[in-house]
Write a structure and sequence with these properties.
The complex is a heterodimer of chains A (about 400) and B (about 170). Chain A is mainly alpha-helical and about 400 residues long. Chain A has one domain. Chain A is about 75% helix and about 0% strand. In chain A, helix 2 packs antiparallel against helix 4. In chain B, helix 3 packs across helix 4. The longest helix of chain B has 28 residues.
Chain lengths: ~400, ~170
């Protein structure tokens, strides 16, 4: 049952080309409009970091629920988590762009905040200041990297040693991981995204982002599994696996729609000026993009994956996943762009920077996939996964 | 009971699957399989099909989404519009009630459909009773049709015993 993924030179050069495009567009963007360039760095990095975090959460849930069907695919989320250290480096580089992105770093500059807002920011200062911001960022990444690397190490050890010890340890660390993720990712979303508009606040914002990360992370796991199957790996993938996978897209799609609506409806109904600015800005800039977000992320996947026969079809799943990955971009773009630059601009800088990050993500995922057996040969539930038939 | 049935009692679902296969191989029809919990494989083996999910979808669409919306529209917009915080009467808050109302309507109607189709419900006569079926026993029921010869009955009994049945009964 040993299978190894070979990182083909073609894919390697393809990802290098994408990274090169990203670097070039960032430099061009930085020359012409640094605000926009840094905003794109944040969009791209957060996009793929969310996928990695979502995949880690998926992996942790599989361990905790001791689910058998998914055990043969656990190398995929493990490899996706390999992007977290890269994201850490880029986020730390982003410190140089903080003054472009976050207006609260220089609140007294003329024309940004009025008297009342300055007063509010003064109250937020003990939390929202540059040294603490960086310290928090370091802590988040330290926790994420240590825990995901440790899970990966246990999984590698299991391949060699076998036995139940590593599995039991993985389960325990998964339990720790989801608590850590829930708390740190909440604050990470507050820090990196919500503080772009420092006056505005929403308590549902982080939950929505976390669910969105889980949603799109598991969608990418499914995408990678299907692509691997089409390339001739993991030939045991069957309809029952696909059905279970599509449940992991369908379920968070509903949750995403629920939280998106809850956030919007509560703010709309309460009608507090400090809260409504967020939506007034966004709907003022583009009503279409606002509706497109919930269409791509909730309505289309919900309707398409509802009938059983469509949820088990590989081509339909690939199409749906591509749609919701576009939706993920729209969602993050909508969260970041108006706060960072004050407008919606979409051009080759956005596309190029995104492609650069996509290249990084493809490279790191393929690299970690090729480092280990594609199938965890000593996983206690492996047999159940290989012969998964009930649906 | 209009006709008697041959009952094979098992205490292990793995043996049950094997027996179902061998009975179907011999060409005998299985009337029913009774298990203490739902087992997916039995749906496949007996080729049981259900349309209740389609029915539930239609209930949700017409009874839930459209029905509850019309009800809300009649009460909150047409018949007795109230000014709550200056919000328009036809508003986003409808979605919350439609969401909850859809679940309520769908569950009730689906349950009702299930009861009607399966002739169950409060006051219904019990279909079949056997000690242990809600505990840890798995049952295979085979209708004993009038044209069964003694040889057939013996054959079925043999398959059941060979498959690991702990008891064979007729009822």
């Amino acid at each position: 049952m040993e299978e190894k993924f070979t990182f083909s030179p073609k894919l390697k050069y393809f990802s290098f080309a994408l990274i090169a495009i990203g670097i070039i567009t960032f430099i061009i963007g930085y020359m012409s409009n640094p605000d926009r360039a840094w905003a794109n760095i944040l969009i791209g990095n957060y996009y793929f970091l969310a996928l990695a975090i979502g995949a880690t959460f998926f992996l942790a849930i599989q361990y905790i629920s001791q689910s058998g069907w998914s055990s043969a695919f656990k190398r995929i989320p493990e490899s996706m988590a390999g992007y977290i250290p890269i994201a850490a480096i880029i986020m730390l580089l982003m410190i140089f762009g903080m003054s472009y992105l976050y207006s609260w770093t220089h609140p007294h500059e003329a024309g940004i905040f009025d008297e009342h807002e300055l007063h509010l920011l003064h109250h937020k200062a003990p939390y929202l200041n540059v040294p603490f911001f960086i310290a928090r960022m370091v802590i988040y990444f330290l926790l994420w990297v240590v825990l995901t690397k440790y899970l990966r190490k246990l999984s590698m050890k299991e391949d060699i040693e076998g036995g139940l010890d590593n599995f039991k340890k993985s389960e325990l660390y998964s339990k720790i991981l989801i608590f850590v993720l829930a708390i740190t990712f909440t604050f990470a979303a507050f820090d990196w995204l919500m503080s772009l508009e420092p006056i505005w606040f929403s308590t549902l914002f982080s939950v929505k982002n976390f669910i969105s990360a889980f949603y799109h992370g598991s969608a990418v796991i499914v995408l990678i599994a299907i692509l691997l199957y089409n390339k001739g790996y993991i030939q045991f993938l069957n309809k029952a696996h696909l059905h279970d996978f599509s449940k992991y897209i369908f379920m968070p799609a509903i949750l995403f729609g629920y939280l998106w609506y809850s956030q919007y409806m509560l703010i709309w109904y309460a009608n507090i000026p400090e809260e409504t600015t967020y939506f007034i800005t966004r709907r003022g800039l583009s009503q279409n993009l606002f509706v497109l977000n919930v269409m791509l992320n909730w309505a289309i996947p919900f309707v398409v994956l509802l009938p059983n026969f469509l949820a088990k079809n590989k081509n339909v799943l690939i199409a749906v996943i591509i749609i919701i990955l576009v939706g993920h971009y729209v969602d993050i773009y909508e969260e970041i762009m108006p706060g960072a630059t004050g407008e919606y601009t979409f051009g080759f800088i956005e596309v190029g920077t995104f492609l650069g990050f996509a290249g990084l993500f493809i490279f790191s995922t393929a690299h970690y996939l090729s480092k280990a057996n594609l199938i965890p040969i000593n996983h206690p539930y492996l047999n159940e996964s290989l012969h998964h038939s009930a649906h | 009971m209009e006709n008697t049935r041959i009952i094979g009692v098992y205490d292990d679902e793995k043996k049950l699957f094997a027996s179902i296969d061998s009975i179907q191989e011999k060409g005998y029809e299985i009337a029913d399989v009774i298990t203490p919990f739902a087992i997916e494989e039995i749906f496949e083996k007996l080729n049981l099909k259900t349309n209740i999910n389609i029915a539930a979808f239609l209930y949700a669409l017409f009874g839930g989404v459209i029905g509850v919306f019309l009800f809300l529209y009649y009460t909150a917009v047409f018949d007795y519009p109230l000014n709550i915080g200056g919000k328009p009467p036809l508003s986003l808050t409808f979605i919350v009630i439609i969401f909850v109302g859809t679940i309520f309507v769908t569950v009730l109607l689906t349950l009702l459909t299930f009861f009607i189709r399966d002739k169950k419900g409060p006051g219904a006569k019990e279909h079949f009773q056997y000690p242990g079926i809600t505990d840890d026993k798995f049952l295979i029921l085979i209708d004993k049709s009038p044209d069964f010869t003694d040889k057939d009955v013996k054959g079925i009994n043999k398959i059941l015993t060979d498959g690991g049945a702990i008891k064979i009964d007729e009822k």
